[in-house]
Design goal:
mainly beta, 5-stranded antiparallel β-sheet, 4-stranded antiparallel β-sheet, 3 helices, 14% helix, globular
Length: 337
């Protein structure tokens, strides 16, 4: 009898310990992204072509870069390369990299799932949106975002967004590499912007620039404020910590500056772009001619907010970049067609 009682107690303790372990331990998703560190020599093998994210504002941060290779059977593999030692540090599987935190111990990455082409499933996914008068995502791709903690060798699912088929968007890291924002192509008509805090593993949707039209995010002005352009053609700053928007460069100020500089272009059509200088983003103003590599004006937004005309007839080129001093201009030499 005594042995049975001891055995029952041991079984009870074991079951309780197992339950506590299962409750406290997150379920491991076999399809979740993970980073496999390189052990010894590692090779990508044979591949047809390779690429890196040249549209990223800081693709070589910390002396490292992500390189993807595509094999003849369309298999994509993504590796982390140490530029100085010319060695592969590891491979990212089941996901695409977005950005590291400051000490590169945490990585934000995403997984994209194409929209279903099954008519029945599309109708079922579209039904709740019709009933509750919500935007439908039945015809859009789903992108799920995760944070990989390289120190703890763990992965945390943050949330999801919707992208239009054949189009996409990327998270833009703040100068402190703590926050990131993303304007998914599936919500371009909405005021919502995705805000991620990679240090605290938080993920939310903010309506920047007011409700309901909001504004379009351009880039990080500092470690916590995003420069946006609203529907009134004013440039404003959105503070992700205070969740408040403040006017930065109103259209009236642009009109006055254009008049003083002798620029006849429409100030309301001015758009901002930025270049990462290693510490902060440098912002410039021009119109849409830049994106077609044509001639236009070039204005620099100097801090705290003064406009400086650099060239009234600047010839833009493809895949361009200014250096930190703004004295040199690098471009690819690509020609139309």
């Amino acid at each position: 009898m005594k042995r049975r009682r001891v055995f029952a107690i041991l079984i009870t303790v074991f079951v309780l310990a197992l339950v506590i372990f299962l409750v406290k331990s997150p379920l491991i998703d076999p399809t979740a992204p993970r980073f496999i560190r390189a052990s010894g020599n590692i090779s990508p093998g044979n591949y047809s072509w390779l690429y890196y994210d040249f549209l990223s504002p800081s693709p070589f941060e910390g002396g490292k870069m992500w390189v993807s290779v595509v094999s003849t059977n369309r298999l994509v593999r993504t590796f982390l390369l140490d530029i100085e030692s010319n060695s592969i540090l590891g491979e990212l599987v089941h996901g695409g990299p977005a950005f590291f935190n400051r000490d590169q111990t945490k990585l934000l990455c995403g997984q994209r799932k194409p929209a279903t082409i099954n008519p029945l499933w599309r109708s079922l996914k579209d039904l709740p949106a019709r009933i509750f008068n919500h935007p439908s995502h039945a015809f859009e791709d789903t992108e799920t975002f995760w944070v990989i903690d390289l120190k703890r060798n763990s992965v945390t699912r943050l949330g999801r967004a919707y992208q239009s088929p054949g189009a996409g968007s990327s998270f833009r890291p703040s100068p402190g590499f703590c926050y990131g924002f993303n304007k998914p192509t599936g919500s371009l008509s909405l005021a919502e912007v995705l805000i991620c805090d990679i240090e605290n593993n938080t993920f939310r949707k903010d309506r920047v620039g007011g409700f309901p039209t909001g504004g379009f995010p351009i880039g990080w002005w500092d470690i916590q404020r995003i420069l946006i352009k609203d529907t009134n053609n004013d440039f404003a700053l959105y503070d992700v910590e205070a969740r408040k928007t403040s006017v930065f460069l109103p259209l009236q100020q642009l009109q006055k500056s254009f008049l003083e500089a002798g620029i006849t272009n429409d100030p309301g059509a001015a758009n901002a772009f930025f270049m990462w200088d290693g510490h902060q983003n440098d912002f410039y103003l021009t119109d849409n001619n830049r994106w077609s590599a044509e001639e236009s004006y070039l204005i620099r937004i100097e801090r705290p907010g003064r406009l400086k005309l650099l060239d009234p007839h600047f010839k833009f080129e493809w895949s361009d970049h200014f250096d930190a001093s703004g004295s040199y201009y690098l471009y690819s030499g690509r020609t139309p067609g």
